[in-house]
Amino acid sequence: MSDDTPPPDPKAFADPPQPEEIDLSRTHGSILREHNEPAEGRESVPLWLVGLIMALVFWGGLYLAYYSGGFRADAFLPRKDMTGGGDDLRDPSMLGKRVFMQSCVLCHQADGLGIPRVYPPLAGSEWVLGNEWRGDNHLVAIVLRGLQGPVEVRGTVFNNAMPGWARLRDDEVAAVLSYIRSEWGNTGAPISAEFVKTVREQTAQRETPWSPGELQAIARTVAPPPTPEPTVSPAAPSVAPEGVIQKARR
Amino acid sequence: MSDLLRSLDPGTPSDPRSYVERAEIDASLRGPVLLFFCSGIAWLLLGSLLGTLAAFKMSFPHLLDSADWLTFGRVRPAHLNIMIYGWASSVGIGVGIWLMARLCRVALRHRGLLMGAGVVWNLGVLIGTVGILAGQSRSIEWLEFPGWATPVLFLGYALIGVWGVIMFRFRRPGHVYVSQWYLLAAFLWFPWLYATANTLLIWQPVQGSVVGAVNWWYGHNVLGLWFTPIGLASAYYMIPKVIGRPIHSYYLSILGFWSLAFFYSWNGMHHLIGGPFPAWMISASVVASIMMFIPVLTVAINHHSTMRGHFHYLKWSPTLRFTVVGAMTYTLVSLQGSLMAIPSLNNLTHFTDYTIGHAHLGLYGFFTMTMFGAMYYIVPRLVGWEWPSATMIRWHFWLATSGIAIMVASLTLGGFLQGLELNDPEVLDFLSSVRVVAPFRFIRACSGILLSAAHLVFAVLFIRMLLRHGVRQVGPALFSAPEKPGDLPAV
Amino acid sequence: MNRLPLLFVGILLVFSTSWIGLVAYPYLNLGHLAPGTSSDGLVPPPMTASAIAGEHVYAANGCIYCHSQQVRPAWLSTDIQKGLGPRQTVARDYIRQSPTFLGTMRSGPDLSNIALRQPLPGWHYQHLYEPDMVTAGSIMPSFRFLFRVQPVQGQPSLEAVTVRGPHAPPSGYEVVPTQDARDLVAYLLSLKHDYPLPEAPEPPKAKK
Predict the structure, then answer these.
(1) What is the pTM of this model?
(2) Which CATH class is domain C36-188?
(3) Which residue of A has its CA nearest to C27?
(4) Which chain C residue is nearest to residue B72, measuring alpha carbons?
(5) Which of A111, B282, B445, C206 gets the most CB atoms within 10 Å of its CB?
(6) HEC sequence for B384-422
């Protein structure tokens, strides 16, 4: 460590007075009681700290080598084998509620009662449960393609628009409809993914939401009861007599 | 070398010329530093008010919700920017200039220009704040001031930063102390950060997710390469100065300084773990965040070893108490931050109030408390008066400490619970994460009242100092009397 | 460490490593990304002028302080399982946004794919006017100042927002959105990332 500093600026503190000439009576006590300006001691760096630093540098290098996706600008995964995050361990029986809570809840609300005169209720709704002319196919068609125009639900007229949810999978539509049919005191039959697939194919040409009149013109069909799920071990999917693969019970 | 050797032995009575020199330096700094302190405290009061309001709005969303300029989305960034640029930067500049002048042993000349710079700086903060409330916020975190306010700030800063570097250039020959490295670095880093961020985000905006990378490179580096060096420079000065012992190890100081400079600047992406960036950027920041253990532990060892055997000074000295609380909080919040950067832990804390607690622990628990300590030391020397009321200092300390402790505790616990709900795939209702954190947010809002009260007390005390209020005292205002009656601590 | 030139160079050199690594290099690599193509056109699709204006309204009112816009990857988080989007968001998803509103808080839900979850402008107008009207228990503040309450001129306006509750307009009056509200909703309805991109990692297949 050298004191190779620039020469002192002569104007910075020109002609300092001699110690005997200095009158400190007007210098404030806060300055007079100060210690000298601080300085640094010469203790050495502890060995354990050096060891820790080396260990951290080693770890850091490994991490960078291992988890940087090859330093590519288009590598958004640290390592190519880190895709899926493991099995989807969510309870499959909650699929319907999950779908409901992602989108449907925003209008129809968590209690299924909608918002009075704005969004219709699902609890006790004849559209959900089916009646003389409303069937399961109408319900699936509404979810797939939407509904708009004045609609009467449980005696109240609603004039709003519901979008179609064709981007949902068949099993998701089936699950959410089965959910709303069994929630909030509703007691309706569940709906199967195959039935949704059938209605989806039947309404494939539909590009705009239905009006109630257009729906009423479609004949009523009821979904076949879903085949009871056989109790098998989780590993083996079972094949029902119709040749359709059923969801294995976990 | 003889300067160094002499200064290592605090028992040696100082040459009376050094008292005169210090008095001259302090006198030359009086105007500018007091200007920065005054404006800083004014912004602190306004910022505390806005912060408390924003906090209560989270608990009572309909509170003052008709006016557009008072909507949460404007009040919150106004609070943030006032605290960063109005309070923390102003008082940091004031403390930094005083420390640099004292350590370089150079009196300030052309102080009118520095005061003008301070006025320009505050003007920039004012018009920026008005801009945010008027609906011109850029919504780039830590850079919300509209594009027409930032050049004003930059101009003000340019004048200030240049002064700091010039002071260093014309320093007296002798050993360069660690605080001077930190201050020189801070004065150089900030304009580079500010210019880059403003250019790439506001004046010639970049495309897409690079905005996020530049944003958080800037935001984290303002904390780590502007505020932290000033806070550490102050702690490195105040601790040995008050207790009259040298800092434990020059080599630890060097290690701490350069490792901070290198690793801290790579941390920015840890605000964006899981974000739309190539994996290498995020991994680099994760590694750099863990490597921060090195400078943080280094500084902690250095400070602690210096303090060892002298912790009883904390009973008396306001300067030391605020500074040591700040320095210990620095260690705590930095270690917390390093752990938060581990991806599996980050998954839980990201997007929650936990992060807000961490931010306040750093900016308030470390930086603000350290600045309070510095101001308790510096102001008597500028004004030529002792603090008129130890009782008020006591109130300031306990209100501030309890306020920040309650705030951080409530946000940390609440944020943790919020994170559990947000990340649980079986929790289907988003609002459950809102409900679980609600009581903690209310407690946090109440802590804002404590902090605002602390700042009010300090502001009143500061005004009394400026007016030289109270009875002329001999000796410093202390929390309690020293054991030996003749023992006047050098606070 | 006593010489100004040494300190000066060291301070700037050390800092420049991160300036190069986290700013300049990413700018070169990611700052000029071109959109991809799909059967429906460019991906991400261009935004309408109204949606671009809506970004300014989003910025002016600080939506980012409660809402994030990034779907984190499946190996790290449960974002995809929670339905925030069909896949993680990548750099190219944000090339239309200026600035990008990645956000750092989820006091409110993530909005990356809000247009997929709620494609109805009418719901968005209601939600902005009075959030707890459509979401009970919401802590989102009201944005009534983005709307105008005006007397009904003959027929109700086609744009009138259906409002119930304490802030419903008196009878004979209706609530209509200002241009700011229209622009903001246009922006929100542009927020969806359901198109595939080659660099975006495939999300995990759902178990049936």
Answers:
(1) 0.92
(2) mainly alpha
(3) A73
(4) C141
(5) B282
(6) CCCCCCHHHHHHHHHHHHHHHHHHHHHHHHHHHHHHHHH
